[in-house]
């Protein structure tokens, strides 16, 4: 079978893909982007203001409870030296992104967006939030240098703060006993954790802890339920929250009220001076992580 000689067809009328010359492209007017933007770590805690690059807060503890403070009738009181408060610190770090778009590119008709500039600014805003999430989760010790011309300030992350209630399962997957043991340590220290923050692997491990547990389901529902989103322990009820950006093999035991994002400069979009036929924008924020009592939290390192 051959094509009729002289017949018009897409290959000669437009090109090998059938597009060009008089043939219009078949381009959908939307953009697909499945890059995750959920930030459960920093979104699940409160926000406070910072007023300096070295952000500090005070911590204090009651004296240990004892049964030896009874006194005789008519006792002449004595006075103990007041305990001192602890000053904790973290430093603010600056996260920024930039956008530069030519006048022509911003003006031409495009698929899936209005102006190129607005679209790029929106993307960079989401990227900064993701960067903040990753930073908050890390074992970054924090750079308490107030800044040099060559070294950026970096704030201390969750894993560097939490040092008291920590354990490791070695080469063995975490068990309920591992979690309950660390929850017991946190509770004994005075904490009231409400969240287990986990990566994908440990989320499935915790959900697998229901194996052998009787489940009462409506037969007409026709669902297989294997997920655990709430962990009810002897020491409280906790949400099991998966975090796509927590790449380290840890189960983070969190009391949300003990953490804050301290903001020195909120995220802002600023125009930069033109240096030609481009429009430029600077997006930046300055912030740090505040941990009000690290021993009210815990961490289990897993394989």
Write a structural description:
The protein has 7 helices and 12 strands. The chain is of the alpha/beta class. The chain has a 6-stranded mixed sheet. A hairpin with a 5-residue loop joins strand 10 (259-272) and strand 11. The chain is flat. The N and C termini lie far apart (63 Å). The relative contact order is 0.21.
Largest β-sheet summary: 6 strands, mixed
Q: Summarize model confidence as the mean pLDDT.
A: 91
How many strand segments? 12
The percentage helix is 10-25%
How many DSSP H or I helices? 7
Query: What is the N-to-C succession of helices and strands?
Result: HHEEEEHHHEHEHEEEEEE
Which stretches are poorly predicted, pLDDT < 50 over at least 5 residues? none
Shape: flat
Strand order of the largest sheet: 5-12-9-6-8-7
Structural class by helix and strand composition = alpha/beta
First-last Cα distance: 63 Å
Strand residue content:
25-35%
What is the CA-atom radius of gyration, in angstroms? 28 Å
């Amino acid at each position: 079978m051959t094509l009729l000689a002289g017949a018009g067809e897409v290959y000669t009328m437009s090109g090998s893909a059938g597009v060009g010359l008089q043939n219009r492209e078949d381009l959908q007017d939307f953009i697909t982007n499945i890059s995750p933007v959920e930030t459960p770590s920093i979104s699940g805690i409160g926000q406070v203001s910072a007023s300096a690059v070295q952000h500090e807060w005070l911590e204090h503890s009651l004296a240990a409870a004892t049964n030896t403070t009874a006194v005789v009738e008519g006792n002449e009181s004595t006075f103990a030296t007041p305990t001192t408060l602890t000053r904790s610190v973290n430093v603010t770090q600056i996260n920024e992104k930039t956008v530069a778009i030519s006048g022509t590119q911003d003006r031409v008709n495009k698929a899936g967006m209005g102006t190129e500039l607005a679209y790029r600014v929106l993307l960079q805003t989401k990227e900064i939030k993701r960067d903040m999430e990753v930073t908050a989760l890390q074992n970054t010790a924090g750079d308490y240098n107030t800044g040099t011309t060559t070294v950026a300030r970096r704030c201390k992350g969750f894993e560097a703060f939490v040092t008291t209630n920590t354990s490791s399962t070695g080469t063995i997957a975490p068990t309920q006993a591992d979690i309950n043991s660390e929850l017991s340590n946190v509770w004994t220290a005075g904490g009231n954790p409400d969240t287990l923050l986990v990566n994908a692997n440990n989320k499935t491990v915790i959900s697998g802890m229901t194996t052998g547990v009787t489940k009462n389901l409506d037969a007409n529902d026709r669902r297989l339920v294997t997920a655990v989103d709430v962990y009810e322990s002897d020491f409280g009820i906790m949400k099991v929250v998966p975090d796509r950006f927590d790449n380290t093999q840890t189960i983070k035991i969190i009391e949300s009220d003990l953490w804050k994002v301290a903001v020195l400069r909120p995220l802002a979009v600023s125009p930069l001076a033109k240096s030609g036929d481009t429009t430029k924008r600077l997006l930046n924020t300055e912030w740090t992580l505040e941990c009000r009592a690290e021993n009210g939290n815990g961490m289990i390192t897993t394989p």
